[in-house]
UniProtKB/TrEMBL annotation:
Positions in coiled-coil regions: 74-101
SMART domains from the UniProt entry: GAL4
Protein name from the UniProt record: Zn(2)-C6 fungal-type domain-containing protein
PANTHER family reported for this sequence: ZN(II)2CYS6 TRANSCRIPTION FACTOR (EUROFUNG)-RELATED-RELATED (PTHR47785)
The keyword Coiled coil is annotated on this UniProt entry: yes
Gene3D superfamilies: Zn(2)-C6 fungal-type DNA-binding domain
Superkingdom assignment: Eukaryota
Naturally occurring in which organism (per UniProt): Mytilinidion resinicola
One protein family per Pfam: Zn_clus
Keywords of the record: Coiled coil, Nucleus
GO molecular function, one term: DNA-binding transcription factor activity, RNA polymerase II-specific
Residue ranges of domain Zn(2)-C6 fungal-type in the record: 36-65
């Protein structure tokens, strides 16, 4: 290349960067992505933009860049452009160096340190983890979720190269949710305005259940604050229209429903949901506080408790509608001057509300396939809450927040788009590595084995099933790509190395689906905060096993030749068949099992 051509190219790049600096919306939000290779983009590390880049060269990875739009041609650049470019480079280096410093892992924290110091170390670690920049979350924010050939309770579009059914029960699902909401309000009206049992023994039992089943999962408020609210509400026998009475009633409602261990027969014959009397009274008190005080911390806490009851009741659409309103108010508060004038204590309480709401919203978003809200954009500016006493619950809280971020990114990146499989082995490998890093750095109180060993701890079990589901979701495109390659090319025409890699990823995916189905039993025995995701992920992985069951080209994978895990997941889900969406899903699975000659008789006897 001539010297003149080299100068011209440099000038073009300078002018291009200047336009980006002066007009940041020009390529938003993919400006930063455009200068990084695919691997560095997913890792969120600084890329030297060489071809191949330094990181890919040292790691032995294939370095792939996205195609860029060709800029308008320029022949020269003035001296001022050089000065501006130098300033921009220095600024970018400064920003990236502050972000790219490795987060200190608190795994080596000295045992002699206090519990407060330990939890603060883990808090800092997870804060760095969740605030790492995500340069590619615009996909679902602008065009909606990718069209994914991954079976769910509601829909599945089977690819042409797989002999299986497709279904779309979306409209029926929403009709059922509308009907369930109407039925719930009718039952609540029939209950009337009478105050539910509030004797001392009952209140003590319900407070204890709230702490165990809610605050140790989601520390929305401190135990001391909960006890204080209950004591205030007791002075008026929970009848005064104030936030303490509403919060107490709604926490009692959650306590009642989360303690429900009824069998399927009992559930079908219940007059109404457990805790509904408390929920009815708490909802009425909350309604009196809305909308005048809806942005007060205590009222926000009441609204999150309201949503949490609906979560346990498996009413996802009602929960989504309400948590959307809570999220909107949280974002409005963060955008206001009021947030900065809060006292330290109230700001900490608000941070608890924000992160609890964010976890619930992300879970419902993935279940209902809703478009994301703007909550994600505030993750980097809202610090994780602090604690000095509730260490156990906060370990789970921090782990859950970071895991939801990872799962959200995976749903953004992995799947089908406009009918074409997104098969990106480098991206999939990196996402699995991130999941493994998350697992390796879990604090001791929430660590779990990656096997089917019963944990007798719902919080750990819930983290484990999400971790396993992440691997199944990431690897599922490899299963589809493997099957499609064999159909279109035949095993003799494809690259042996490529097909071997696909086959191993397919094997790994099916093994994770099997493990997910085995883990379902522990999570589907009772109501709890993570019930809905457990139901939906169990059905999805069970269906993945059905799709691959006895497929000839998968004969070398032993798990595809047995129906044991399919039957086990089916039995676990049967306890929730009173839910219309589960009933339809299991009826569909019964037809598939009958067609595949998987016996149902012994399953019926077990129910």
């Amino acid at each position: 290349m001539s010297e003149g051509a080299s100068k011209s190219t440099g000038a073009e790049e300078q002018v291009e960067e200047l336009e980006d600096a002066l007009n940041p919306i020009r390529n938003y939000p993919r400006k930063r992505v455009a200068v990084a290779c695919e691997v560095c983009r997913v890792r969120k590390t600084r890329c030297d933009t060489k071809r191949p880049c330094g990181f890919c060269t040292s790691s032995g990875l294939q370095c792939v860049y996205r195609p860029l739009n060709q800029p308008e041609k320029y022949t020269s650049a003035s001296e001022i452009l050089n000065r501006i470019e130098e300033r921009l480079v220095r600024l970018e280096d400064s920003i990236n160096s502050s972000r790219s410093e490795p987060a200190s892992t608190p795994a080596s924290i000295d045992d002699s340190r206090s519990a407060k110091s330990k939890i603060e170390g883990w808090r800092s670690y997870y804060q760095d983890l969740i605030t790492s920049p995500n340069y590619d979350n615009s996909f679902r924010q602008t065009t909606g979720e990718a069209y994914t050939a991954r079976p769910s309770l509601v829909s599945f579009t089977c690819p042409y190269y797989i002999h299986f059914d497709s279904w779309d029960d979306t409209s029926r699902f929403y009709d059922d949710e509308f009907r369930a909401e109407k039925d719930l309000y009718q039952i609540m009206d029939a209950i009337g305005d009478r105050v539910p049992p509030t004797d001392t023994r009952t209140i003590w039992r319900l407070q204890k259940a709230t702490i165990k089943n809610f605050l140790q999962w989601m520390p929305l408020l401190s135990v001391e604050d909960l006890v204080n609210h209950v004591q205030i509400a007791q002075t008026s026998n929970f009848e005064l229209q104030n936030s303490s009475a509403a919060l107490s009633m709604l926490s009692f409602a959650f306590a009642e429903i989360s303690e429900d261990r009824a069998s399927q027969l009992d559930i079908q014959h219940q007059v109404f949901l457990p805790g509904l009397q408390y929920f009815r009274h708490g909802s009425k008190l909350l309604q009196e506080l809305m909308p005048r005080e809806r942005r007060e911390i205590e009222v926000l806490q009441c609204r999150v408790l309201y949503v949490s009851y609906l979560q346990c009741a498996a009413l996802p659409l009602m929960a989504w509608d309400t948590i959307m309103e809570v999220g909107r108010d949280c974002m409005n508060i963060l955008s206001s001057g009021h947030y900065h004038t809060m006292s330290t204590a109230r700001r900490e309480s608000f941070h608890r509300v924000f992160w609890t709401s964010s976890i619930i919203m992300h879970e419902l978003e993935s279940i209902l396939k809703m478009s994301p809200t703007g909550m994600r954009q505030f993750h980097e500016v809202v610090p994780l809450p602090q604690t000095t006493t509730e260490v156990e619950g906060f370990y789970h809280f921090f782990a859950q927040i970071s895991l939801r971020k990872l799962l959200t990114e995976i749903l953004d990146l992995v799947g089908y788009r406009v009918g074409q499989v997104i098969y990106a082995p480098i991206v999939a490998t990196e996402l699995r590595k991130q999941a493994q890093d998350w697992y390796s750095h879990l604090p001791p109180p929430v660590q779990f084995p990656i096997n089917a060993t019963p944990l007798f701890d719902l919080r750990k079990s819930y983290l484990r099933v999400q971790f396993v589901a992440i691997h199944a979701v990431v690897l599922w495109p490899s299963v589809l790509q493997f099957l499609e390659s064999l159909v279109n090319q035949g095993p003799e025409k494809g690259s042996t190395e490529r097909l071997d890699s696909l086959q191993q990823e397919t094997r790994d995916c099916i093994e994770f689906c099997v493990l997910n189905c085995e883990l379902a039993e522990e999570l589907l025995m009772q109501r709890h905060f993570g019930l809905q995701l457990a139901i939906w992920s169990t059905y999805a992985t069970m269906s993945m096993l059905m799709v691959t069951y006895r497929v000839p080209s998968l004969a070398s994978i032993s798990e595809t030749r047995t129906d044991m895990y399919i039957r086990k997941a089916f039995t676990s889900l049967s306890s929730w068949e009173h839910l219309p969406v589960v009933h339809r899903g299991l009826e569909r699975t019964r037809r598939h099992m009958d067609r595949a000659q998987i016996p149902l008789d012994d399953l019926i006897m077990q129910q």
